[in-house]
Design a protein that fits this description.
Blueprint: E1 2-9, E2 18-26, E3 31-38, H1 47-53, H2 57-60, H3 66-77, E4 81-84, H4 87-100, E5 109-111, H5 112-119, H6 128-134, H7 145-162
Helix pairs in contact: 5-7
C-alpha cells in the first residue's frame, strides 16, 4: 500500500507550517481512498507563498488546525509507504507536526524524485512540473496539494510500470485499513 502525499506550506524554513495537505491511498493499481484539506497554520502566509500557491490567509482562517486532522492523516497513511516528490520535505513537515503534539509519526518513505532519476535517467530536470511535462502527465492546479498529489499518483504509477530493476517495494495487501 502507498500513501501518496503532497503538502503546501508557509515557506521552507524551520518555522514554516502546513497550509494544505492531500493524500491518496493507492494499492499500485487504483486509488482506494483520499483526503484533502486546507490547514490553518496559525501563522501568517507570506505574499510570495500566496503568489505561488494561491492560498491566502483568508482561505485558511476557518480551516482546521493540524491537530484536528492528524487522526485522518495517521489513518490514511497507516501501513502504507509514504510517497512524495521530494519526500524529505513533505514527510519532515508532517512528522514535525505530530511531534509538536507529543506523538511519534513514523512511516517508510519513497521519493519519486530519486526513483525518477533511476528509472528515467538523463532528463534535464526532475522537478515535478518539468518531469510531468516530459512524461506527458497533465497537472491541474499546480502548486496546490491536491493537484500536485494527483500528478504524483500518475507519476508513481508510471514509475511502477517501468521499474524493471524492482526498485519500488511492492505493496503488501493490508486488510486492517
Amino acid at each position: 500500500m502507498y500513501a501518496i502525499v503532497d503538502i503546501e506550506t508557509t515557506g521552507g524554513g524551520p518555522s514554516a507550517r502546513i497550509t494544505e495537505i492531500a493524500i491518496y491511498r493507492y494499492d499500485g493499481s487504483q486509488i482506494l481512498d483520499q483526503f484533502q484539506t486546507l490547514v490553518n497554520p496559525k501563522i501568517f502566509i507570506p505574499p510570495f507563498i500566496t503568489h505561488i500557491t494561491g492560498i491566502t490567509n483568508e482561505m485558511v482562517a476557518n480551516a482546521p488546525i493540524f491537530e484536528e486532522v492528524k487522526d485522518q492523516i495517521r489513518s490514511i497513511t497507516e501501513g502504507a509507504w509514504f510517497v512524495a516528490h521530494n519526500v524529505k520535505f513533505d514527510y519532515g513537515f508532517i512528522r514535525n507536526e505530530f511531534e509538536s503534539s507529543g506523538e511519534i509519526f513514523q512511516r517508510n518513505q519513497l521519493c519519486t524524485v530519486q526513483l525518477s532519476r533511476k528509472i528515467f535517467p538523463g532528463l534535464k530536470s526532475y522537478s515535478l512540473g518539468k518531469l510531468c511535462a516530459n512524461l506527458n502527465i497533465q497537472i491541474e492546479n499546480r502548486h496546490r496539494a491536491d493537484g500536485d498529489a494527483s500528478a504524483t499518483v500518475k507519476l508513481f504509477d508510471m514509475l511502477l510500470n517501468h521499474d524493471q530493476n524492482n526498485l519500488i517495494p511492492k505493496p503488501v495487501v493490508d486488510m486492517t485499513y
